[in-house]
# Entry
Amino acid sequence: MDLDKTIYSLSVQDLQTVADEELGRELSKEEISLIQEKIGDYIDWQSAISNAINNNLL
# Structure
């Protein structure tokens, strides 16, 4: 198995959809650059992976 394979990712369209819902507008290129490296800091990866395992394998 390829251990470097990406399992889940977010697209710029995902960011723009949420920005439109939250801000009523799309993000600029500068705003995307500002937040793109920080998004992962707000995702509870441990719980997401644990929930996927528990809900689908156990």
